[in-house]
């Protein structure tokens, strides 16, 4: 019997160039067998990380129309995935979207994409940071990086290397905000390895997934990781295995990019890794 295809609402921006947000989430989740319904929050000529003269069209006024039509059509969603949001108004629309479409079995994943390297993004206001924390309270799963985890917990940013005691305590406290599961990226205990850690407060499962570190910074890797993680969990893969799958896929894409000597601002070569991902899922 062919399994019923899972349907995901992906609420993210779309960059015409530079692999991030919807331009990586859509092919990754689709290759994992899921239907992706996009709610574009903005359209950009490219991402803004190190690229200049970016053309941006804010789509906030159009977002309620997506909610209105989809609600009238009574579209059921197995997953709702939100990422970077550009304004407090977008946060309010996403709140309404989750309230409207969440069912008992819907997996709501929030990537609180608001900060990195110890600082809030320049477009993020304190009001938006507070709104993002509230959105995390409504999630089933959150995937902050280390900067975002510290902001959500109301404590100063910590530089690595980390200790297992701090990572595990932070994960427990993140789930106390509301989500059943918290996953932190950017976890490392020694310079050679980098990865993620996750905690499910309902089962008590605590998991680590690490891979050999590749030097340098690459745009869009957080979106790649989160998309694979969500796609695997929707296929009933256990948290520890979903974490390792997401870490290995992201690391593989980064290694390909480094070996090809590609410009890291242009995103990572994830496409050649998709067949291996499909194979590992047995699709």
UniProtKB/TrEMBL annotation:
InterPro entries: PM/HMP-P_kinase-1, PyrdxlKinase, Ribokinase-like. One of its GO terms (cellular component) is cytosol. Gene3D superfamilies: 3.40.1190.20. It comes from the Bacteria. GO terms for molecular function: ATP binding; pyridoxal kinase activity. The keyword Transferase applies. Residues 31-257 form the Pyridoxamine kinase/Phosphomethylpyrimidine kinase domain. Its EC number is 2.7.1.35. Keywords: ATP-binding, Kinase, Nucleotide-binding, Transferase. It holds the Pfam family Phos_pyr_kin. GO terms for biological process: pyridoxal 5'-phosphate salvage. PANTHER family: PYRIDOXAL KINASE (PTHR10534:SF2). This is pyridoxal kinase. It comes from Caproicibacterium argilliputei. The lineage of its organism: Bacteria, Bacillati, Bacillota, Clostridia, Eubacteriales.
């Amino acid at each position: 019997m062919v399994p019923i295809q899972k349907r995901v609402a992906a609420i993210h921006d779309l960059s015409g160039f530079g692999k991030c947000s919807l331009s990586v989430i859509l092919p990754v989740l689709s290759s994992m067998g899921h239907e992706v319904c996009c709610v574009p929050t903005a359209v950009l000529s490219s991402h803004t990380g190190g690229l200049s003269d970016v053309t941006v069209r804010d789509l906030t006024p159009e977002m309620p129309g997506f909610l209105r039509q989809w609600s009238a059509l009574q579209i059921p969603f197995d997953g709702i995935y939100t990422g970077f949001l550009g304004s407090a108004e977008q946060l309010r629309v996403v709140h309404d979207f989750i309230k409207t479409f969440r069912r008992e079995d819907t997996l709501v994943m929030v990537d609180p994409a608001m900060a990195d390297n110890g600082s809030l993004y320049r477009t993020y206001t304190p009001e938006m940071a507070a709104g993002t924390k509230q959105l995390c309270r409504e999630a089933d799963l959150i995937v902050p990086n280390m900067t975002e985890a510290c902001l959500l917990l109301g404590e100063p940013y910590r530089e690595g290397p980390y200790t297992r005691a701090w990572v595990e305590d932070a994960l427990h406290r993140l789930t106390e905000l509301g989500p059943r599961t918290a996953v932190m990226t950017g976890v490392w205990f020694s310079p050679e390895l980098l990865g993620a850690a996750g905690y499910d407060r309902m089962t008590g499962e605590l998991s680590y997934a690490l891979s050999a570190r590749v030097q340098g910074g690459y745009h869009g890797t957080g979106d790649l990781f989160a998309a694979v993680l969500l796609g695997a969990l929707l296929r009933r893969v256990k948290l520890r295995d979903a974490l390792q799958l997401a870490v290995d896929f992201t690391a593989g894409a980064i290694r390909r990019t480094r070996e090809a000597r590609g410009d890291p601002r242009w995103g990572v070569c994830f496409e050649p890794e998709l067949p291996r991902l499909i194979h590992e899922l047995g699709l």
